[in-house]
Automatic annotation (TrEMBL):
It catalyses: L-lysyl-[protein] + acetyl-CoA = N(6)-acetyl-L-lysyl-[protein] + CoA + H(+). This is Putative protein-lysine deacylase ABHD14B. Acts as an atypical protein-lysine deacetylase in vitro. Catalyzes the deacetylation of lysine residues using CoA as substrate, generating acetyl-CoA and the free amine of protein-lysine residues. Additional experiments are however required to confirm the protein-lysine deacetylase activity in vivo. Has hydrolase activity towards various surrogate p-nitrophenyl (pNp) substrates, such as pNp-butyrate, pNp-acetate and pNp-octanoate in vitro, with a strong preference for pNp-acetate. May activate transcription. Residues 65-169 form the AB hydrolase-1 domain. May interact with TAF1. One of its GO terms (molecular function) is acyltransferase activity. Belongs to the AB hydrolase superfamily. ABHD14 family. Residues 1-27 form the signal peptide. It comes from the Eukaryota. GO terms for biological process: positive regulation of transcription by RNA polymerase II. Its main location: cytoplasm.
Length: 241
């Protein structure tokens, strides 16, 4: 066996130790220095505690905040495992994913409305203020539409851009209300999501400033089925803001 230019007899362990110590050590961890830093915490919303995960650039200020919500069978861990949080931070964004009330690590928190009903827009306003997000991009799949849509309409100044992914509750707002929103939007859904995907699109298409991405071969949680295409679409949209 040969290491660092020296021949080592593997039958003499103390010789291997001495030779190894003579090898130059890298000044950085394996894989190089991390480009992102991550943390976990809790934010108070109306006297209740919500869990969140956060990824941001390791150095320098983030160019924009991105708030990631989730569907009823998912949580902030979904965005962690999919590497969406890391991808966003690597691109220079502050990515914050929360666990909605009653789900994930926020199970003890009570939702401000029944599933399928619109939550008060003030709910995400408190989240935004508690996390000091400022005007943020909101990524909102499925269930989270009951939170994000009222927030979009009632506190539009806090929404830099909107990325709905087949959200619920789109039928609760009129075409005129949608057309009054000037916020840039990226409507994403899977072509196999022939129920909520198509229903939500038929309402969201009335947004006055929107783009559409249909992920081919993807179902309702289309970001899970086509993660590469999902990340590319989101990052390209963010770069256009």
């Amino acid at each position: 066996m040969e290491r660092c230019g020296f021949k080592v007899n593997s039958t003499v362990p103390f010789v291997l130790l001495i030779v190894t110590l003579q090898c130059p050590l890298s000044p950085f961890p394996l894989g190089g220095m991390s480009k992102v830093k991550s943390s976990e915490g809790r934010v108070d919303v109306g006297g209740q505690s919500l869990f969140y995960r956060q990824f941001q650039p390791a150095e320098g200020a983030a160019s924009l905040a991105v708030l990631l919500l989730h569907g009823i069978r998912f949580s902030s861990e979904t965005w962690l495992e999919l590497n969406t949080l890391e991808r966003l931070a690597e691109a220079g964004y502050r990515a914050v994913a929360i666990d909605l009330p009653g789900l994930g690590n926020s199970k003890e928190a009570k939702a401000p409305a029944q599933v399928g009903e619109s939550a008060p827009g003030s709910f995400l306003k408190q989240v935004s203020e508690g996390l000091q997000l400022g005007p943020a991009v909101v990524i909102s799949p499925s269930l989270s539409g009951m939170y994000s849509l009222p927030f979009l309409f009632q506190h539009n100044d806090l929404v830099k851009a909107y990325i709905p992914v087949a959200p619920i509750c789109t039928e609760k707002f009129t075409a005129e209300q949608y057309s009054s929103i000037k916020t840039p939007a990226l409507i994403v859904y899977g072509d196999q999501d022939t129920q909520l995907g198509e229903v939500s699109f038929n309402n969201l298409k009335n947004l006055s400033n929107h783009k559409v991405v249909v992920l081919q071969g993807a179902g309702h949680p289309c970001y899970l089925d086509k993660p590469g295409e999902w990340h590319s679409a989101v990052l390209q949209f963010l770069q256009s803001l």
